[in-house]
Amino acid sequence: MGEPLEFVKTGIGGLDAMLFGGIPKENQVILSGGPGAGKTLLAFEFLYRNAKEGNPGIFFTFEEDPKKIIHNAKSAFGNFDDIDELIAEGKLVINGRDMTEGIMDKFDDASYEFGRIITDIERQIVAKKATRAVLDSSSALELLIKDPMVYRKSMWSLVANFRRLGVTTILTSELQSPDRSKLVFKPEHFIFDGMMVMYLSGEEAKRVSALEIVKMRGYKHSFTTAPYEITPDGFNVLSVENIGD
Questions:
Q1: Pick the residue with more confidence: 39 or 182?
Q2: CA-CA distance, 149 to 105, in Å (whole number)?
Q3: CB atoms inside a 10 Å sphere around CB 207
Q4: Measured distance CA(114)–CA(107) in Å, rounded
Q5: If you count Cβ atoms within 10 Å of the first and of the last residue's Cβ in the chain, which end, N or C, has fewer?
């Protein structure tokens, strides 16, 4: 018999119930959603909850200033009153790099620049002894590498390197449409071990948010689509598996 499977809990009750315990340790998971779905906030809460349990994590943002990420998290999660403390202790690291200027300047060798970015991320993971990581988002990296084949190979390399480092990772990704019926799969969706999707449906005044686990390679998970809400205490995923807990 093989070694017992270890799970990394997200700390989000309803979501861990849908995952039947959490994300398999050292899995690389892509979190997709349209604008306003809350994927950056969910990824942040994943790191926050783990940091509170003593598992250091690093949040890398390629599109927003790290200060804005922290500000948005504090605004959304009003009862997370120890964010600054966790940051000061080095358990929660929010780092970033403004990719927009580089993208507009058009790198002569985009694959080399991609490699340099990932090497820098890996260096920080090792230095901080991080066991959890978030990359937000793949959209900036996709703009950097316009050749589809080069981008696919680069993403394979990214996943392989994070597995080698023993890090459990969430990479956020933009959906072309927030509607479930219009879900379009991208190359990275097939490369990563797992995929979770956050949908928004209905009219603006009556939007319904829902989360689905599309895959978690090799492991059982819920196949239902569960509504969720963002509260001052964090995400509340109203999954069938969590009823009665």
A1: 39
A2: 22
A3: 13
A4: 10
A5: N
